[in-house]
Amino acid sequence: xxxxxxxxxxxxxxxxxxxxxxxxxxxxxxxxxxxxxxxxxxxxxxxxxxxxxxxxxxxxxxxxxxxxxxxxxxxxxxxxxxxxxxxxxxxxxxxxxxxxxxxxxxxxxxxxxxxxxxxxxxxxxxxxxxxxxxxxxxxxxxxxxxxxxxxxxxxxxxxxxxxxxxxxxxxxxxxxxxxxxxxxxxxxxxxxxxxxxxxxxxxxxxxxxxxxxxxxxxxxxxxxxxxxxxxxxxxxxxxxxxxxxxxxxxxxxxxxxxxxxxxxxxxxxxxxxxxxxxxxxxxxxxxxxxxxxxxxxxxxxxxxxxxxxxxxxxxxxxxxxxxxxxxxxxxxxxxxxxxxxxxxxxxxxxxxxxxxxxxxxxxxxxxxxxxxxxxxxxxxxxxxxxxxxxxxxxxxxxxxxxxxxxxxxxxxxxxxxxxxxxxxxxxxxxxxxxxxxxxxxxxxxxxxxxxxxxxxxxxxxxxxxxxxxxxxxxxxxxxxxxxxxxxxxxx
Length: 491
Fold this sequence. Notes:
Elements: H1 23-35, H2 42-46, H3 51-62, E1 77-79, H4 83-90, E2 100-107, H5 113-126, E3 132-137, E4 140-145, E5 156-159, H6 166-173, E6 185-192, E7 195-203, H7 209-223, H8 235-249, H9 288-298, E8 329-336, E9 342-348, E10 356-362, H10 372-391, H11 410-413, E11 419-422, H12 428-432, E12 444-445, E13 452-457, H13 466-490
Parallel strand pairs: 5-6
Antiparallel strand pairs: 1-4, 2-7, 2-8, 3-4, 6-7, 8-9, 10-11, 10-13, 12-13
Helix pairs in contact: 5-7, 10-13
Pfam family, one: PP-binding
Domain Carrier: 1-62
GO molecular function: catalytic activity
């Protein structure tokens, strides 16, 4: 699956991730194992078991018919809102019902409407949150999941007069969502001559960027004739884990902390290195912490855990980390969210879109809390700067990659001792791929094993001219220098 040279694999030392695997390829691996009767779960891989360790687990479980690797059963009922969902309802939005996350697939082989109904039915059955509803009771928002038989699957079909008319259908239908009465997702099959498009859009309350990648992978799996072999973690458990983490660190995802709030969880709390919080194989709910961990995983930070990540920036854009080789599809995202931002990204499946982290390692015990003011400046400055260029309509004919893999020793230029910029170590395969970026720059601030402060920034390069990209990067580096100078002033 990972196309490795067997002579370079060390069974007692190597793990799935250190060999170049990521969360999505791990899902493929687990599914293939289950199809062959090998009893391994995503949690086994996420715990960092070596290949020998995984083999031992598989042998031990082979004779245990009572062992069930499926998560606890949950089909419907109430659930507690996550911190990010509560944050969403606290915003002064013009329309709570309209914040779609879109997925548009162009198929080389059209499928029948019945086949698409089967695909969507499987998605709704596997991902409980596609049956979610949100109600306001006595001024408080509450969540619930409908039973499968109370939420009929609807797949709409239409014929396009021109191939590009799919944008018209998307624009006309994105206002149809309703988080209280439904639908909370939209599914459309659009035909133009011998070409077929499948459009799936979910409200941001029930999905985030990682979720859409998982759904795209699920659709691809189903279209290739395979089944979705396992169900995901029940959402009430997911919600409880997020709530517990948020309470422990006294932070809410999406909110910048005040001075002194960047602290580790209490020492008496079991860190639970790979808790269900990092359950990367299910729909996650607008959770920026999980997205950050997912992105870090792609760059080899395999031992990062939920408890290491204590803060992320506010998600205002769409990012995807998607790779698929089972069916030739074109993957396109297009939409307009509740904050009035729009995006349009198109690429061929197998082309990675990812976060680009630069890691500042703390060498001399500087308190991370002193970086808060600088991070706020970067978040405001870069976002305002980039939005201005995005709205001006500047585009480029072909995407460019702003290469973060080289050395950016901005610590020297800032005259700051005690910090160094760590190069990102990536595989040759990744270095050969171009890195697309998002409409609005995102900066995620996270705590990594108490020593590192990853800063990640991303853009969608097709929105920017090369001159604009350079100007944005100059602004970003200026912000990071500001952080470093703040640290220097604290010495």
